[in-house]
Amino acid sequence: TTVLGIETSCDETAAAVVRSVEGSAGGEILSNTVYSQIADHAAFGGVVPEIAARAHVEGLDAIVARSLADADVTLDDIDAVAVTAGPGLIGGLIVGMMTAKAICTARSLPLVAINHLEGHALTPRLTDGMPFPYLLLLVSGGHTQILLVRGLGDYERWGTTIDDALGEAFDKTAKLLGLPYPGGPAVEREARNGDATRFPLPRPMKGEERLDFSFSGLKSAVRRQASELAPLTAQDVHDLCASFQAAVTDTLRDRMLRALRRYRGEVSDHPAALVVAGGVAANQAIRAMLEDVCKDEKTRLYAPPQSLCSDNAAMIAWAGIEHLETGTATGMDVAPRSRWPLDEAAASLIGAGR
Ligand code: ATP
Ligand code: MG
Ligand code: FE
Q1: pLDDT surpassing 90 at residue 353
Q2: Gap from CA of 119 to ligand 3 centroid (Å)
Q3: Distance from the CA of 87 to the center of ligand 1, in angstroms?
Q4: Binding positions for Fe cation (predicted)?
Q5: Rounded to an integer, what distance in angstroms lies between the CA atom of residue 315 and that of residue 304?
Q6: Cα 103 to middle of ligand 1, angstroms
Q7: Is the pLDDT of residue 13 over 80?
Q8: Is the pLDDT of residue 167 over 60?
C-alpha cells in the first residue's frame, strides 16, 4: 500500500509518500516534504492562525507536487490519501482536507481522515515496527500528554496540561525575556551558561497523584522574577533560562516516574517502552533526564529522529496505512475537527462511516 499524507494542522505545510513493506513491521518513507512557516510567524512571537491558513493555501499544492516528485511517483502509484482532520487550527485543517478530498475525487481514491495525535503516537511503528503497548510522552507547541498506546485506535490519555503546552511555555518564557521565536531552542541555548539554582522557581504538579501538567504558573514566576530584576543583564537571562529549564525537567521527571510505575502496575510488567515525540523532545536536558528515569525504571526509551518528532506528513500517511490495512477508510463527508481528543479517535472514525 502506498499512501500520500497531508498535514496542515499548525504551522508546517507538509506532504509525504509512505509505503508499507511486505513482511516488515515498519514502513518505507519515499518522501517527507515539510515547509516550516516559522519565518512567517517569528515577528509575532508565535503562530498567527490567519497567517498560517493563508500560507497553507498558497503552499500546499506545490508541496504535494514536490513530495510526489521527491518520491519519484505519480498519483497513479498512490492507493489512498491520508489527511490530518484534527485537532489543530481550523483554517489549516480545512485547506488540507479540501486538497485531499479534491485529489480523492479526481482519482477515485479512498480518503483516510487522521487524528494528528495518532500520527505522533504511531510514528515508532513506522520507523521501528514498535509492538503495542507502549507509553508516549508527547511534548510540542500545542500538546503535552502522556498516552498509553494499547493498540490501533486504542489510546488512553493518562495526563495532559491543564493550561499551557510545554513548547508554548518555552515560547512564552522566551518572549518575556526578549529571546527570539521559537523559544525552545533559544531558552536551551541561554540555559547552557546559566546557574539553574539561582532562582527557586515552582515545580507545578510535582507530587500530585494524577498525571497532569501545569506550566502557566511557572511562566508567571519567571515574569515576576524578571520584573524584579529589570533591567536584565545577560547573566540574569542565562540564569532565568537555566532555572526555568531545571523546573520543567524536574516536574517532568516526577510525572514520568509515576507514569512508568503505573504502567508496570496496570498494563504489563514486561520491560516497558517509553516513546518521546514532539518538538520539545529535541531539548537535551529533557532528553538526558528521560534517559536517566528510563534507566532506573528498566524501560527502553525511544525517540524517533527529530524530523519525524516535529510535525510532518509521513506520520499521517503511516497512520493512514495502518487504518487501511485494518479496513477503515473514511467517508468523503468527514469534516475537520479543531478539537479532537485522541481517546475519541476510533469512535469518530467509525462514526464517519465509509
Ligand atoms: P503541534 O503541537 O500540533 O505538534 P507545533 O508545531 O507547535 O504543533 P512542534 O513543531 O512539534 O509543535 O514543536 C514546536 C515546539 O517545540 C515549539 O514550542 C518550540 O519552542 C519547541 N522546541 C523546539 N526545540 C526545542 C528545544 N530544544 N527545547 C525546548 N523546546 C523546543
Ligand atoms: Mg510546528
Ligand atoms: Fe504535532
Answers
A1: no
A2: 8
A3: 16
A4: 116, 120, 311
A5: 11
A6: 30
A7: yes
A8: yes
Is the separation of the CB atoms in 261 and 294 below 8 Å? no
Residue 170 binned pLDDT confidence (cut-offs 50, 70, 90): very high
Tell me how far apart the alpha carbons of residues 18 and 318 are, in angstroms, rounded to a whole number: 6
For the whole model, what pTM was predicted? 0.93
* pLDDT score at 328: 76
Query: Does any ligand 1 atom lie closer than 6 A to the CB of residue 7?
Result: no
Residue 15, C-alpha cell as written in the block: 506532504
Cell 481522515 belongs to 113
* pLDDT, tens digit (0-9, with 9 covering 90-100), for 258-286: 999 999 999 887 767 999 999 999 999 99
Assess contact for 110 and 80: CB atoms under 8 A. yes
Give the distance (Å) from ligand 1 centre to CA of residue 282.
8
Q: In whole angstroms, give the CA distance from residue 218 to residue 223.
A: 9
Instruction: Starting from the CA of residue 280, give the closest ligand.
Output: 1
Most ligand 1 atoms within 8 A of CB, residue of 8, 166, 179, 311 to mutate: 311
Long-range contacts of 249-253 (CB under 8 A, 24+ apart): 249/285, 249/286, 249/289, 250/203, 250/206, 251/203, 251/204, 251/205, 251/206, 251/213, 251/218, 252/166, 252/286, 252/289, 252/290, 253/289, 253/292, 253/293
Burial of 23 (0-12, 13-18, 19+ CB in 10 A): exposed
For ligand 1, mutation pick of 144, 170, 248 (most atoms within 8 Å of CB):
170
